Amino acid sequence: MELRHLRYFLAVAEEGHFGRAAKRLNIVQPALSMQIKALEEELGGALFIRTSRRVELTDAGRLMQAEAQRTLAQADHAQLAVARAMRGETGRVRVGFAGNAIFSGKLIADLRRFHQTYPDAELVISEVAPQQQLAAIATGQLDIGYMPATSKTDAPGIVAQSLGQWGILVALHDQHPLTVHTSITIDMLAAQPLILYEAHDDQEQLFLTLSHKLGADLQVAHRSGSTLSVLAIAATGLGVALVPAPLRQVTIPGLVYRRLDDADLNANLMLVSRAQEPNAAAAAYLALSSQPSA
Protein backbone atom coordinates (compact mmCIF):
# COMPACT_ATOMS: atom_id res chain seq x y z
CA MET A 1 0.00 0.00 0.00
CA GLU A 2 1.35 3.40 -1.00
CA LEU A 3 0.17 6.95 -0.37
CA ARG A 4 -1.13 7.17 -3.93
CA HIS A 5 -3.47 4.23 -3.22
CA LEU A 6 -4.94 6.18 -0.32
CA ARG A 7 -5.41 9.25 -2.51
CA TYR A 8 -7.13 7.14 -5.19
CA PHE A 9 -9.39 5.57 -2.56
CA LEU A 10 -10.36 8.95 -1.07
CA ALA A 11 -11.15 10.39 -4.50
CA VAL A 12 -13.60 7.56 -5.21
CA ALA A 13 -15.09 7.82 -1.71
CA GLU A 14 -15.61 11.56 -2.01
CA GLU A 15 -16.90 11.54 -5.60
CA GLY A 16 -19.03 8.39 -5.21
CA HIS A 17 -18.24 7.58 -8.82
CA PHE A 18 -15.23 5.99 -10.54
CA GLY A 19 -15.52 8.13 -13.67
CA ARG A 20 -15.56 11.46 -11.80
CA ALA A 21 -12.79 10.29 -9.49
CA ALA A 22 -10.62 9.26 -12.48
CA LYS A 23 -11.17 12.66 -14.08
CA ARG A 24 -10.25 14.42 -10.85
CA LEU A 25 -7.08 12.34 -10.56
CA ASN A 26 -6.27 12.81 -14.24
CA ILE A 27 -5.99 9.06 -14.91
CA VAL A 28 -8.10 6.69 -17.00
CA GLN A 29 -10.99 4.91 -15.28
CA PRO A 30 -9.80 1.32 -15.91
CA ALA A 31 -6.48 2.11 -14.24
CA LEU A 32 -8.27 3.58 -11.23
CA SER A 33 -10.60 0.57 -10.97
CA MET A 34 -7.58 -1.74 -11.11
CA GLN A 35 -5.80 0.16 -8.31
CA ILE A 36 -8.87 0.07 -6.04
CA LYS A 37 -9.37 -3.62 -6.72
CA ALA A 38 -5.73 -4.32 -5.86
CA LEU A 39 -6.14 -2.35 -2.63
CA GLU A 40 -9.23 -4.33 -1.65
CA GLU A 41 -7.45 -7.60 -2.38
CA GLU A 42 -4.51 -6.54 -0.23
CA LEU A 43 -6.82 -5.64 2.65
CA GLY A 44 -8.90 -8.79 2.23
CA GLY A 45 -12.36 -7.34 1.63
CA ALA A 46 -14.58 -4.84 -0.19
CA LEU A 47 -14.28 -1.11 0.51
CA PHE A 48 -17.12 -0.11 -1.81
CA ILE A 49 -20.59 -1.34 -2.71
CA ARG A 50 -20.81 -0.83 -6.46
CA THR A 51 -24.13 -0.08 -8.22
CA SER A 52 -24.88 0.95 -11.77
CA ARG A 53 -25.14 4.62 -10.80
CA ARG A 54 -22.70 5.14 -7.93
CA VAL A 55 -20.44 3.50 -5.39
CA GLU A 56 -20.93 3.62 -1.62
CA LEU A 57 -18.59 2.85 1.23
CA THR A 58 -18.88 -0.36 3.22
CA ASP A 59 -18.38 -0.23 6.98
CA ALA A 60 -14.75 -1.17 6.42
CA GLY A 61 -14.59 1.53 3.75
CA ARG A 62 -15.77 4.21 6.18
CA LEU A 63 -13.07 3.15 8.62
CA MET A 64 -10.55 3.20 5.81
CA GLN A 65 -11.67 6.70 4.85
CA ALA A 66 -10.96 8.08 8.32
CA GLU A 67 -7.59 6.35 8.52
CA ALA A 68 -6.59 7.43 5.01
CA GLN A 69 -7.43 11.06 5.75
CA ARG A 70 -5.39 10.91 8.95
CA THR A 71 -2.43 9.24 7.22
CA LEU A 72 -2.34 11.67 4.31
CA ALA A 73 -2.65 14.66 6.64
CA GLN A 74 0.32 13.38 8.66
CA ALA A 75 2.32 12.78 5.48
CA ASP A 76 1.62 16.34 4.33
CA HIS A 77 2.58 17.64 7.76
CA ALA A 78 5.85 15.69 7.72
CA GLN A 79 6.72 16.98 4.26
CA LEU A 80 6.02 20.57 5.27
CA ALA A 81 7.92 20.25 8.57
CA VAL A 82 11.02 18.83 6.91
CA ALA A 83 10.91 21.41 4.11
CA ARG A 84 10.66 24.24 6.65
CA ALA A 85 13.54 22.80 8.65
CA MET A 86 15.67 22.60 5.50
CA ARG A 87 14.93 26.27 4.81
CA GLY A 88 15.90 27.19 8.37
CA GLU A 89 12.38 28.27 9.32
CA THR A 90 12.34 25.96 12.33
CA GLY A 91 15.03 24.41 14.50
CA ARG A 92 17.39 25.96 17.03
CA VAL A 93 20.19 28.51 16.77
CA ARG A 94 22.58 28.77 19.71
CA VAL A 95 24.24 32.19 19.89
CA GLY A 96 27.10 33.15 22.18
CA PHE A 97 28.26 36.71 22.76
CA ALA A 98 31.04 38.43 24.64
CA GLY A 99 32.24 41.91 25.50
CA ASN A 100 31.24 44.59 23.04
CA ALA A 101 28.63 42.61 21.12
CA ILE A 102 25.50 43.49 23.05
CA PHE A 103 26.38 47.19 23.30
CA SER A 104 27.42 47.67 19.67
CA GLY A 105 23.83 47.11 18.53
CA LYS A 106 24.74 44.50 15.92
CA LEU A 107 23.89 41.46 18.06
CA ILE A 108 20.46 42.79 19.03
CA ALA A 109 19.68 43.82 15.44
CA ASP A 110 20.61 40.36 14.11
CA LEU A 111 18.61 38.52 16.78
CA ARG A 112 15.56 40.71 16.22
CA ARG A 113 15.68 40.30 12.43
CA PHE A 114 15.98 36.52 12.67
CA HIS A 115 13.11 36.24 15.16
CA GLN A 116 10.86 38.43 13.01
CA THR A 117 11.73 36.47 9.84
CA TYR A 118 11.59 32.98 11.39
CA PRO A 119 9.29 33.23 14.44
CA ASP A 120 9.02 29.44 14.76
CA ALA A 121 12.77 28.94 15.13
CA GLU A 122 14.23 28.82 18.64
CA LEU A 123 17.01 31.20 19.73
CA VAL A 124 19.25 30.21 22.64
CA ILE A 125 21.39 33.20 23.71
CA SER A 126 24.17 33.13 26.30
CA GLU A 127 27.19 35.17 27.35
CA VAL A 128 30.32 33.12 26.69
CA ALA A 129 34.00 34.11 26.88
CA PRO A 130 35.69 34.35 23.45
CA GLN A 131 38.03 31.37 23.86
CA GLN A 132 35.14 29.22 25.07
CA GLN A 133 33.01 30.37 22.12
CA LEU A 134 35.55 29.10 19.62
CA ALA A 135 35.77 25.70 21.29
CA ALA A 136 31.97 25.44 21.57
CA ILE A 137 31.46 26.33 17.90
CA ALA A 138 34.08 23.81 16.80
CA THR A 139 32.43 21.02 18.84
CA GLY A 140 28.85 21.93 17.86
CA GLN A 141 27.75 23.28 21.26
CA LEU A 142 27.31 26.79 19.78
CA ASP A 143 26.36 27.79 16.25
CA ILE A 144 27.16 31.51 16.14
CA GLY A 145 29.58 33.64 18.15
CA TYR A 146 30.00 37.40 18.60
CA MET A 147 33.44 38.15 19.97
CA PRO A 148 36.57 40.28 19.55
CA ALA A 149 39.25 38.95 17.23
CA THR A 150 41.79 36.74 18.97
CA SER A 151 44.84 34.78 17.88
CA LYS A 152 42.57 31.72 17.62
CA THR A 153 39.82 33.08 15.35
CA ASP A 154 41.98 32.30 12.30
CA ALA A 155 41.57 28.55 12.81
CA PRO A 156 40.75 25.74 10.35
CA GLY A 157 37.03 25.21 9.95
CA ILE A 158 36.19 28.62 11.46
CA VAL A 159 34.91 31.67 9.58
CA ALA A 160 35.34 35.06 11.26
CA GLN A 161 33.62 38.07 9.68
CA SER A 162 34.44 41.59 10.83
CA LEU A 163 31.41 43.51 12.11
CA GLY A 164 33.04 46.75 13.16
CA GLN A 165 35.84 48.58 14.91
CA TRP A 166 35.70 51.18 17.67
CA GLY A 167 38.00 53.26 19.82
CA ILE A 168 39.02 52.40 23.36
CA LEU A 169 37.70 54.04 26.52
CA VAL A 170 39.33 54.16 29.91
CA ALA A 171 36.78 53.29 32.61
CA LEU A 172 37.74 54.41 36.11
CA HIS A 173 36.43 55.36 39.53
CA ASP A 174 34.98 58.87 39.63
CA GLN A 175 37.53 59.91 42.30
CA HIS A 176 40.54 58.71 40.33
CA PRO A 177 43.17 61.43 39.67
CA LEU A 178 43.02 60.78 35.90
CA THR A 179 39.39 61.93 35.74
CA VAL A 180 40.61 65.56 35.51
CA HIS A 181 41.62 64.83 31.90
CA THR A 182 39.07 64.74 29.07
CA SER A 183 41.25 62.21 27.24
CA ILE A 184 44.01 59.93 28.43
CA THR A 185 47.25 59.02 26.71
CA ILE A 186 49.12 55.75 26.93
CA ASP A 187 51.88 57.40 28.96
CA MET A 188 49.33 58.27 31.67
CA LEU A 189 48.63 54.56 32.09
CA ALA A 190 52.22 53.78 33.06
CA ALA A 191 52.29 51.89 36.38
CA GLN A 192 48.49 52.09 36.63
CA PRO A 193 46.82 48.79 37.63
CA LEU A 194 44.98 47.81 34.44
CA ILE A 195 41.83 45.73 34.11
CA LEU A 196 41.62 43.76 30.86
CA TYR A 197 39.31 41.20 29.35
CA GLU A 198 40.51 37.61 29.53
CA ALA A 199 40.42 37.60 25.71
CA HIS A 200 43.36 40.03 25.73
CA ASP A 201 45.88 37.51 26.99
CA ASP A 202 49.64 37.76 26.49
CA GLN A 203 49.32 36.75 22.83
CA GLU A 204 46.63 39.25 21.84
CA GLN A 205 47.19 42.49 19.94
CA LEU A 206 45.99 44.89 22.64
CA PHE A 207 48.31 43.38 25.24
CA LEU A 208 51.23 43.28 22.80
CA THR A 209 50.70 46.95 21.86
CA LEU A 210 50.51 47.96 25.52
CA SER A 211 53.68 45.98 26.24
CA HIS A 212 55.50 47.70 23.39
CA LYS A 213 54.46 51.19 24.50
CA LEU A 214 54.66 50.82 28.30
CA GLY A 215 57.39 48.22 28.67
CA ALA A 216 58.15 47.49 32.30
CA ASP A 217 55.51 50.04 33.38
CA LEU A 218 52.69 47.78 32.15
CA GLN A 219 50.79 46.43 35.13
CA VAL A 220 47.83 44.11 34.54
CA ALA A 221 46.06 43.82 37.90
CA HIS A 222 42.87 41.99 36.91
CA ARG A 223 41.37 40.06 34.01
CA SER A 224 37.72 39.06 33.58
CA GLY A 225 35.61 37.43 30.91
CA SER A 226 32.51 39.45 31.80
CA THR A 227 31.91 43.05 30.74
CA LEU A 228 29.97 43.87 33.89
CA SER A 229 32.74 42.36 36.03
CA VAL A 230 35.36 44.50 34.29
CA LEU A 231 33.29 47.64 34.89
CA ALA A 232 32.49 46.69 38.50
CA ILE A 233 36.17 46.19 39.32
CA ALA A 234 36.97 49.59 37.82
CA ALA A 235 34.11 51.30 39.69
CA THR A 236 35.42 49.81 42.93
CA GLY A 237 38.74 51.59 42.39
CA LEU A 238 40.90 48.48 42.01
CA GLY A 239 42.28 49.68 38.69
CA VAL A 240 41.44 51.29 35.37
CA ALA A 241 39.75 49.29 32.64
CA LEU A 242 40.26 49.45 28.89
CA VAL A 243 36.90 48.84 27.24
CA PRO A 244 35.28 49.31 23.79
CA ALA A 245 33.75 52.74 23.12
CA PRO A 246 30.13 51.49 22.84
CA LEU A 247 30.22 50.69 26.57
CA ARG A 248 29.90 54.41 27.27
CA GLN A 249 26.13 53.83 27.30
CA VAL A 250 26.46 51.58 30.37
CA THR A 251 25.90 53.65 33.51
CA ILE A 252 27.33 52.29 36.77
CA PRO A 253 27.39 54.31 40.01
CA GLY A 254 30.86 55.69 40.71
CA LEU A 255 32.21 54.91 37.22
CA VAL A 256 33.25 57.42 34.55
CA TYR A 257 34.70 57.06 31.07
CA ARG A 258 37.51 58.90 29.35
CA ARG A 259 38.66 58.59 25.73
CA LEU A 260 41.99 56.84 25.19
CA ASP A 261 43.97 59.03 22.81
CA ASP A 262 45.85 56.40 20.86
CA ALA A 263 45.10 55.40 17.25
CA ASP A 264 47.04 52.14 17.59
CA LEU A 265 44.58 50.69 20.10
CA ASN A 266 41.06 49.75 19.11
CA ALA A 267 38.27 47.27 19.82
CA ASN A 268 36.65 45.09 17.19
CA LEU A 269 33.79 42.65 16.87
CA MET A 270 33.70 39.45 14.81
CA LEU A 271 30.88 37.15 13.78
CA VAL A 272 32.26 33.63 14.13
CA SER A 273 30.76 30.44 12.70
CA ARG A 274 31.64 27.08 11.18
CA ALA A 275 32.94 27.00 7.61
CA GLN A 276 30.65 24.04 6.88
CA GLU A 277 27.33 24.67 8.62
CA PRO A 278 25.04 21.60 8.87
CA ASN A 279 22.35 23.45 10.85
CA ALA A 280 19.88 24.95 8.35
CA ALA A 281 18.52 27.39 10.93
CA ALA A 282 22.04 28.62 11.71
CA ALA A 283 22.74 28.98 7.98
CA ALA A 284 19.57 31.06 7.63
CA TYR A 285 20.70 33.22 10.57
CA LEU A 286 24.08 33.82 8.93
CA ALA A 287 22.43 34.72 5.63
CA LEU A 288 20.21 37.30 7.33
CA SER A 289 23.06 38.76 9.40
CA SER A 290 25.09 39.40 6.24
CA GLN A 291 22.32 41.48 4.67
CA PRO A 292 22.56 45.28 5.05
CA SER A 293 20.27 46.85 7.61
CA ALA A 294 16.98 48.21 6.28
UniProtKB/TrEMBL annotation:
InterPro entries: LysR_HTH_N (IPR000847), LysR_subst-bd (IPR005119), WH-like_DNA-bd_sf (IPR036388), WH_DNA-bd_sf (IPR036390). Pfam families: HTH_1, LysR_substrate. It comes from the Bacteria. Keywords: DNA-binding, Transcription, Transcription regulation. Residues 1-58 form the HTH lysR-type domain. Transmembrane segments: none annotated. Belongs to the LysR transcriptional regulatory family. PANTHER family: LYSR FAMILY TRANSCRIPTIONAL REGULATOR (PTHR30346:SF17), TRANSCRIPTIONAL DUAL REGULATOR HCAR-RELATED (PTHR30346). This is LysR family transcriptional regulator. It comes from Kluyvera intermedia (Enterobacter intermedius). The lineage of its organism: Bacteria, Pseudomonadati, Pseudomonadota, Gammaproteobacteria, Enterobacterales.
